[in-house]
Design a protein that fits this description.
The protein is of the alpha/beta class. The protein is built from 5 helices and 5 strands; from the N terminus they run βαβαβαβαβα. α2 runs parallel beside α3.
Length: about 130
């Protein structure tokens, strides 16, 4: 599995990499702009991501904007449903409106920080990634 971890905090990226690395090849980005660049490059190389962990609150471009661009890119190429990259939003915000908005914008999972191995693996199992 090919995984992209997007978080503006080094601790967040490092922890997610430690948790997810047994399940696949990991790339990392520090904001939404880098995430979009990595996503597009992976497509151009013919080796797209299977899973993206995407922090919501970041500088330059937040995770929700990055998610909208990712979904538009897939839609423009006729990619829908189970063929899309799985996106798990990560955030410190535990309010229902953030959760609902993230799902409306196209994520498949949502993890409230602090990120813990059990939470990550639970969502990955629910998405049939592990």
């Amino acid at each position: 599995m090919r995984i992209l971890i997007v978080d503006d905090e080094l601790v967040g990226r490092t922890l997610l990499r430690k948790i997810a690395s047994p399940y696949g090849e990991i790339d990392m980005a520090v904001n939404g702009r880098e995430a979009i660049e990595a996503f597009r490059l992976a497509w151009e190389e013919g080796n797209p991501y299977d899973l993206i962990f995407l922090d919501i609150m970041m500088d330059e471009m937040d995770g929700r904007e990055a998610l909208r661009i990712i979904r538009k890119h897939e839609e423009d190429r006729g990619i829908y449903g189970r063929k899309r990259v799985k996106v798990i939003m990560t955030t410190a915000k535990d309010d229902s409106s953030s959760v609902l908005n993230s799902f409306r914008e196209g994520c498949e999972g949502y993890i409230v920080k602090p990120v813990e191995k059990e939470k990550v693996e639970k969502v990955m199992r629910e998405l049939e990634l592990i």
